[in-house]
User: Fold these one by one.
Assistant:
Number 1:
Amino acid sequence: MTDYLVKALAYNGYVRAYAVDATSTVAEAQRRHDTWNTSSAALGRTMVGALMLGATLKGDDKLTVKVQGDGPAGQIVVDSNGQGDVKGYIDNPHISLPLNEAGKIDVRGAVGTQGFFTVIKDLGLKDPFSGQVPIVSGEIGEDFTYYLAVSEQTPSAVGVSVLVDTDDTIKTAGGFMIQMMPGVTDEVIDTIEARLNETARISNLLDEGQTPEEILQNLLATDDINFLEKMPVQFKCDSSKEKFAKAIITLGADEIQAMIDEDHGAEAVCRFCGDKYEYSEADLEVLKQAALGEA
Ligand SMILES: [Zn+2]
């Protein structure tokens, strides 16, 4: 089944909510980067959060989420946009830690608890918007929540979860983001918070066969839900041989000549999707001429 995200309004518009099934999307990232279970969960949770944050943008706008903690995972970088596209990587894809005390994947152990959580939004304006907060949890969901509260002044509850199978493949991945709009009553907040506390992780609900719509209905504890949009989400990288060629040209003619003389070609690997792009000596000769033309 295709992954998708739903957007909804509840309680007369005082509560905005998103839920996403990103199972195939995170599974593709796992295959492309050969992530082991703890890395899979850390990267997957960041991708799920970035998808929901991206869903708040308009079509062509895009954002980058960077999680830079002091744990063995290193940096996690995820790009997403208003059209449900997401791509990302984790510096160290091969982390497999013992389960934590709660019997869950130890994402905090991989990410670390010191460092920064940054969101950069490209809204088509001259300067991108950038917000940065310290990492407060390392479990990712709480870090999205803290970022939204502090940097965007939007009280939210964010849940992101990834269920990894024993062979490291992704069983399910998904999440929810519930945002309180100004004027929401304490009663509504209490009702939703109580429901959140008694609800299982989204990845388990997805594993039981629940849909994002059903998950939101349950989390929001009301029938007063207006589903606004259902948007497909997918792993998508826009890298290409042409784009990397432009980067090679900026290295300059001398550097390109060295690639021809020493390596008789070049290979570029996209960090986001792992695709490889090969450049023959003839390709490089063309790029060298372009570099000379730009000099
Ligand atoms: Zn790529």
Note: The CA atoms of residues 210 and 265 lie 50 Å apart.
Number 2:
Amino acid sequence: MTEEIYRGAHVGDNGRVAEETDKTHESVREEIKEFLIDDAEIGETLDSINFDEIQRIFSEKIQKSIPDSEARAHTISRPDVFLVTPEAFAKVGNPDANPLMSYMPQYDVILVNVLEMRRVASMYNVPIPLLTVKLLMHEQAHAVSSHYDRQSRSGNRVVQIGVQQLHMQREGSSQAIFFNLLNEAINEKLARMVLVEYLKSNPLSGVNHEDIDSIADIYKKPEAALLFFAALHFLEALIAKISAKSHVEPDKVWQGLVHAEMMGLDLKNQKVRGMLDAAVGKQGFTDELSRLNVIDDTEKMVQLMSKYGLIHNFDKFKNAFVRGVLIRRQKKEQV
Ligand SMILES: [Zn+2]
């Protein structure tokens, strides 16, 4: 197993998030090496991935979302991938997080939390190669989304990735995050579409490919709620609502959301905010949505859906969600 999986992969150079400290991409990569860890199965899966094919599929989907009037090339990033222990996440600037994988736009790297992946794979009985490719696709979707750093009018720093914004004060570390839920939901839906298409031509060893679509369905099971079950349901309801309200086909609405993600649409902008409110048919929606996070705010999300009439299979979802939460709690107790 190579220690560093995709050494020398290209580092994106346009619109990258600027360094907060005097750390450089290289010094952070050096730091990460302290936390490298071997895992033969995850390593071999990553080694076998056809990144050119992934980039081709993303590129095709992104191009499809760009209106003809704006046709232009979109940069597809190919970050370095490192298998690390959980401590690496804290080390490179994400002290509270303990995700399975994480894309770090500052350094254009994907960190793979091997121990956490092993734990989750056995808890939900998901094959490691499938979990690896599935998660990688999600992080790769973040990597291809627009990301940039700007000063707001008040002088605060805004770091935007996709439609998500992180607002930081000039001094000190006070931060606020906006549109995390929406960003993750769009990202995940896109990643799953790419995953299903990718697996059709790039079978994974040890995974039954008889019915490719059912592989994506694994993650729709309520007990896999931590894998974006609720966020995806929310997104489908939002698309259905906008489609019904504005008489635009659901797929066109979806393409618009992909475009917003890839171009880094500023949903805090008053005009844009007003447009989304109008599309849903009620003022205040965008503002409330902006404060929801994918990890902790599922119950608030259910309230928001109810309040603004995002009722696509709402009862079915609510029942499934409650069941999912219960199953998750039980599993957590067992671990
Ligand atoms: Zn994500």
Note: DSSP finds 14 helices and seven strands in the chain.
